[in-house]
Amino acid sequence: MNKKNDKLYIYAFKIFFACGMSFGSQSVHFDNIQTWLVIVARYVVYNLIIKGIHESSVLGFNHFQTRSKLDFNKMYDQSKIFLIIFAGSICVLVYSKQRVFDEGFLLFFIAHLIAKYPEIEQKSSTINYGVGMACSFFEGYLAHIIPSDGARFVGFEENINIYEAKQGVVFPVKKLFIVITKSLYCPPDLKQFNKKNQRLPYLEACQSLEDVEKDVAGVKNRTYRNSAYKIYRAGRAPVYLAAECASPLHTLHRVLERRALHPELLDIDTQEIVSDFCTMLRSIISRSSDCRDKCELVFYDDKDPNLNLADILLEKIRELEPDFENIITIEPR
To answer: pLDDT tier at 93 (50, 70, 90 boundaries)?
Structure first.
């Protein structure tokens, strides 16, 4: 039984329950259907307004967290049925010459907030897809390539220092830049995001950082590798950085391309998953003393032809290190 059928059965049970209460209650009379319609329409309006406030709050919070653009077409598609029901209920009230709002709305809203508060205190027994991906990405990857293990691996920052000394270059920001793309597409080389206009800054892959080898989950000498890139700029020195896409989102992109193989994911909200992934990943990194301030999430709308990843990365570097232009001219140690 799929989840949609489960919801239908539960919804049908609620309808039968409501009908049972209606017919079983001696205080309910069916003499004036119009009065019933007006009351139901008003409560539908109240419920949908409160739902709209909730969804707007969630959307605004997620937008603030991810800085991603709002997809108004998708929002409309998801809200279309609710808007039709809302408009129909408003029409019933207007046709019946009734007020849309009365003094009961505020009390209804307060009662709703009181009833919802326990849900905040409840601890979920399950985790969603995005949260699970973030935990797996951190423990299965970042925890292996960022901190020093005190033995074979010196740590990500020191690995960059070694690279600088060997290659004679300078990384103005010694962090791992994790690129989060709007489409979830993650190319094998970030230069695929370069624009054809060569006057714009563009990315080029360099020799990778030193490999990290660890014995993990029964695999001897498992290799982890981080890519170094340089951003070429017309008339200026190139800027070096360590950057890559978030591999869990690459996996999600592949899954969504093969929906026939994964029918359970047909109706998922990918932007919600990405938002959960980014929020959780940031939270984990900030709580980890080994990884805190060593990773930076960078959001890139690869669907917008006017945006250039190299420019976005440069802006992020400038934000993290305003004096980076002077730093990259200093001879490496």
So the answer is: confident
Bridge partner list, 228 = 242
User: Alpha carbon 100 to chain centroid distance?
Assistant: 36
* Contact (Cβ atoms closer than 8 angstroms) between residue 202 and residue 191: yes
Calculated CA dihedral for residues 120, 121, 125, 129, nearest 10 degrees: 30
- Residue 1 has a pLDDT of 43
- Domains of the chain and any CATH numbers: 31-121 (no CATH), 129-327 (3.40.50.12100)
| Maximum separation of any 2 CA atoms in the chain, in Å | 90
State pTM to two decimals: 0.68
Q: State the SS3 of the chain.
A: CCHHHHHHHHHHHHHHHHHHHHHHCCCCCCCCHHHHHHHHHHHHHHHHHHHHHHHHHHHHHHHHHHCCCCCHHHHHHHHHHHHHHHHHHHHHHHHCCCCCCCCHHHHHHHHHHHHHHHHHHCCCCCCCHHHHHHHHHHHHHHHHHCCCCCCCCCCHHHHHHHHHHHHCCCCCCCCEEEEEECCCCCCCCHHHHCCCCCCCCEEEECCCCCCEEEEECCEEEEEECCCEEEEEECCEEEEEEEEEECHHHHHHHHHHHCCCCCHHHCCCCHHHHHHHHHHHHHHHHHHCCCCCCCEEEEEECCCCCCCCHHHHHHHHHHHHCCCHHHHCCCCCC
Question: What's the rounded Cα separation, in Å, for the pair 69 and 66?
Answer: 9
- Quick check: 134 pLDDT over 70? yes
